[in-house]
C-alpha cells in the first residue's frame, strides 16, 4: 500500500521561517541532504531554498527529492483581492515549474500565529460574516487560478487563525465548491486545538489532498494554554514533535488513509528548536515510525 503514499519532510525542523533564530546556522544543503539520508522522497519549501526552479531542481534531483508543495499566506480578509491573486499567481507558477500538484493556502488576515506575545487560545481571530464571505469568495478564485495549471489548493487549518476548530473547518467545507477548494489534514494542529483528527479525516476524506503529520507533547500543550502563551512560544517550548514521540495515536489514522487508498503526500512537519531536538535525528525517528505503520497495513 505504501506505493500509493509519498513521504515528504518539511524544512521547518531545520530552519524556522517565523523564528529565523531557530536553526539559523543550518544550511539549505544540510537540510535537504539529511532529509534524503533519512529516506524521504519529497520536501516542502523553506526560506533558505533557492527560488529559481532550475537551480532548486539541480539540488533536489541529485538527492532524489521532489517538491511536494509550499505554503502561501493569503490575506483575503484584509487585503485587496487583486493583490492576493497577483502574489498567488507568482507562487503557483513557481510550484508548477517544480512539478508540485497542490498549493498549501492559509488565511493570515488577523492571524496571531506569528505574534510572539499574543495568547494563542485567548485571542484567536474569529471571522465575522463579512470576512467569511470575502474569505470564501477569494479562496474559490484562488482555486480557479490553481486549476489553470492543473493544480489544486489545499487549505491549511492552523492554530491562531480564523480556521482552526472543527466548527470553522465545517463551515469552510460546506461553503466552498469541492472542485475548487480541497483540504490539508494536519494532525498536530487539530489535536493542539482540541479537535478529533480521526473525525475530521473520516468526514472530509474525499476533500483531503495533502497531509501533514506532526505530533503533540501533551504536557507542553497544556502548559501553553495554562500560561496563556503565544503560538511561537509554544513552538519554542516544544509543543510539537514528530509522529511517535507525542500523544497522538497515528495507527488508526494511517489505517484509514491506507484502507481508503489515499494517494497524495504525507509530509512530516514538526517545528522544534533544532538545538534542542536535532532535526535529522527526529526526521529519522518519524520515518521509522511511519514505515512501521505502513508495514502493518501491508501485512494485514
Automatic annotation (TrEMBL):
**Catalysed reaction, written as an equation:** scyllo-inosose = 3D-3,5/4-trihydroxycyclohexane-1,2-dione + H2O
EC number(s) on file: 4.2.1.44
- Pfam families on file: AP_endonuc_2
Q: Which residues form a coiled coil?
A: none
Q: In which pathway does it act?
A: Polyol metabolism; myo-inositol degradation into acetyl-CoA; acetyl-CoA from myo-inositol: step 2/7
Query: Which SUPFAM superfamilies does the UniProt record give?
Result: Xylose isomerase-like (SSF51658)
Keywords attached to this entry: Cobalt, Lyase, Manganese
Q: What does this protein do?
A: Catalyzes the dehydration of inosose (2-keto-myo-inositol, 2KMI or 2,4,6/3,5-pentahydroxycyclohexanone) to 3D-(3,5/4)-trihydroxycyclohexane-1,2-dione (D-2,3-diketo-4-deoxy-epi-inositol).
From the Swiss-Prot or TrEMBL record, give the protein name: Inosose dehydratase
Q: Please spell out the taxonomic lineage of the organism that makes this protein.
A: Bacteria, Bacillati, Bacillota, Bacilli, Bacillales
Gene encoding this chain?
iolE
